[in-house]
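Please decode residue identities from the backbone states below.
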């Protein structure tokens, strides 16, 4: 028999994935899990804590796999910068593995990224992991300022969100892909994005009155 805590986690994961964290109330989770409010507060304290535990129980092992792959890549590089593609693979391929086992959870992570909650969760629980990958990318991309790199990482998370939780746009892509194939396409796209030349500052806008003089 599934215990109360597990049932709450499973139910929250399903509802967060289907509807999004912001759209789901504790009352909906309580009703769907057939538990009472006291049980939720006893095990988790709040809806925010519940989201953290939904994420941590599956992202924890994924992050361990990410670190192991990055460690291996850095060892093989023997002091040289790790190629961008290798860094991205270390970060994204474990996601494809969990996607095959838990497609509902992948939807949750896509929703969490899209709704802007991943920054709080990452800062609170995954800062060492994020720092490792940002440092690896900065070393591999010395032409980028930290600000430019930060923007590209920001845009990357938007692309990851669409790849994970976005409905497959068959009218646009012409085909449907499974998660491993989708991750491969995402890595190819991001490699080009990260290795593009630094963006040039926008030209200053001329005052129309000055132009007319």
């Amino acid at each position: 028999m599934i215990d109360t805590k597990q049932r709450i986690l499973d139910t929250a994961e399903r509802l967060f994935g289907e509807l999004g964290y912001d759209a789901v109330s504790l009352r909906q989770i309580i009703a769907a899990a057939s538990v009472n409010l006291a049980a939720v507060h006893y095990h988790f304290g709040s809806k925010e804590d519940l989201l953290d535990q939904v994420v941590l129980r599956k992202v924890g092992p994924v992050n361990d796999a990410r670190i192991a792959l990055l460690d291996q890549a850095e060892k093989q590089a023997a002091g040289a910068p790790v190629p961008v593609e290798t860094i991205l693979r270390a970060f994204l391929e474990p996601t494809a593995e969990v996607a095959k086992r838990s497609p509902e959870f992948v939807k949750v992570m896509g929703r969490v990224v899209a709704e802007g909650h991943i920054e709080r969760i990452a800062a609170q629980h995954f800062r060492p992991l994020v720092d490792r990958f940002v440092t690896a990318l900065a070393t591999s991309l010395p032409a980028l300022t930290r600000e430019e790199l930060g923007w590209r990482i920001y845009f990357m998370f938007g692309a990851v969100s669409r790849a994970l939780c976005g409905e497959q746009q068959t009218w646009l892509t012409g085909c449907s892909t499974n998660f491993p194939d989708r991750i491969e396409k995402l890595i190819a796209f991001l490699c080009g994005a990260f290795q593009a030349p630094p963006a040039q500052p926008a030209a200053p806008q001329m005052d129309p009155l000055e132009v007319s003089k």
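Observation: The radius of gyration is 21 Å.
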